[in-house]
Amino acid sequence: MFAPLSIPSPEWSYFDLGPFRIHAYALCILAGIVAATIMTSMRLTKRGAEPGIVLDIILWAVPLGIIGARIYHVLTHPGDYFYPGADLLRTLYIWEGGNAIFGALIGGAIGAYIGCRMTGIRFWSFADALAPGMLLAQAMGRLGNWFNAELFGLPTTLPWGLEISQSNPAFPVGLPEGTLFHPTFLYEIIWNLAGVAVILLLERKLTLRWGKAFAVYLIWYGLGRSFFEAIRVDPSEMFLGVRTNIWAAWLAVVIGIVLFIVQSRRHTGVEISPYVPGREWNPDDADIESDNADSEEDDHGDGAATIQSTAAAATSTHGPNS
């Protein structure tokens, strides 16, 4: 018997829609991407960027982020994919779980840099606008781990422990049925949502531009992830007795601190525009183009009316009845 307040694992992780199988994990990831895109677009537009320009950036950032996330996961869990008789196609089965945020950051950063270069948006302006949305997306994505009943923590007697069936392949050998585990997915959801609030509150007190909001994101997420990773029971590659993801989390914290210090010294003023010099978007130009288009349409309309009038006059003067 489980504790009365324990968290049950879902009894399903996918459903079939006609010939298609829809995985809850994928829906959680997709919902997170949509939420982050909307939030980032609103923040970037408020800072002077062209409405909707975020879509031109995420067209590069999202695919490369997903690829990076999967590659990082596979490389840090080689025993799950590379062994005698292994089906190497499983390295592509992202719906089974296994997308590492640190790989997503690397791949997504490369994609975002390409997108920013093409649109003229400053890379750090985009990163700052993205920072709270990134945490929101990660919080929503962690629900996918709950649906997959994966990446849970150590056994616990806390009343909010997570119920995991003994038939689950990830259930630790030797533990009795009814053992509860730390719901690391829930811990990280709470931590990430708190991080969204922290960044938004700090922006009211401090000038978090030039990459400093993203630096706070790296520090906040890195600190939380280093703890949650330490209590997980899923196998992982080790380096010097420490899980590789913990090393990555510590590295994120270090990069965040260095980025905040360096950018604070390099940029002491206000970020005037999210665009690089010479690539600015002027809403007045868009209005002028719209007015010119309307004017051309009117000119075409007047020309058509003139032609019609001329044709009518010609018909009345030289028609069959004359």
From TrEMBL:
Pathway noted in the entry: Protein modification; lipoprotein biosynthesis (diacylglyceryl transfer)
Cellular component terms (Gene Ontology): plasma membrane
Originating organism: Microterricola viridarii
EC number: 2.5.1.145
Function: Catalyzes the transfer of the diacylglyceryl group from phosphatidylglycerol to the sulfhydryl group of the N-terminal cysteine of a prolipoprotein, the first step in the formation of mature lipoproteins.
Region (Disordered): 278-322
Name of protein: Phosphatidylglycerol--prolipoprotein diacylglyceryl transferase
GO molecular function: phosphatidylglycerol-prolipoprotein diacylglyceryl transferase activity
InterPro entries xref list: Lgt
Keywords from the UniProt entry: Cell membrane, Lipoprotein, Membrane, Transferase, Transmembrane, Transmembrane helix
Biased composition (Acidic residues): 283-300
Residue ranges, compositional bias (Low complexity): 304-322
TM helices/strands, residue ranges: 20-41, 53-72, 92-116, 123-141, 185-202, 214-233, 245-262
